[in-house]
What we know:
Layout: H1 3-9, H2 23-34, E1 45-50, H3 53-61, E2 75-81, H4 92-116, E3 120-124, H5 129-136, E4 143-151, H6 165-168
Flavin mononucleotide (FMN) binds at residues 11-12, 14, 67, 122-126, 146, 160.
Amino acid sequence: MNVKNAIKERKSIRKFKEKSISNSLIKEVIDAARKAPSSHNLQPWNFVVVKDKKKILEFEENDIFIQKEMYKTPVIIVCCVDDNPYSKHSNRKLEIAMNFINLSLASAFLVLRATELGLGTCYVAWCNKEKIKKLLNIPKEVIVPYVIVMGYPAENPSPTNRKKLSEIMHFEKW
Length: 174
Ligand SMILES: Cc1cc2nc3c(=O)[nH]c(=O)nc-3n(C[C@H](O)[C@H](O)[C@H](O)COP(=O)(O)O)c2cc1C
């Protein structure tokens, strides 16, 4: 699959087959994230892979997700970003924002590679991130903006709408 098709094929998948994903495939998708660009090449990301059914049950017992179907996901990738901005820069707010941008880029690489491998994904921000941090022993200073659920798709939703290219693209001036 080429990049064009991976972009076309990717859509949020929220229902998965029970089939588990091999660790080598999981490593493939995280490795794609690892190769993303980042400001100052900081690579301020970490990914905690949760696939143990007991752990996912613990998520359920702790009411981590608002959407109950997420507990049926075979793999939850907890996306983490450092809260330690580039120290040479004076604008701390901007640098923290930059770290989020970096994590987003890495996540986009991750979901496109997952698509190429026949896996479905969905970003899930609608979850209790502080409880996730506690359950997984994630350091206090690390931020979890969202998780990515991943598995073999058990649904094929219609593509969601997008703005027209002419609405968002401007040649030479706005
Ligand atoms: C940062 C982010 C957070 C999201 N959080 C959720 C979520 O909590 N629950 C959910 O069902 N979908 C979530 N989504 C998926 C979006 O609803 C979805 O990407 C959007 O509707 C476009 O659909 P598509 O991904 O199928 O193209 C999230 C997407 C992003 C990028």
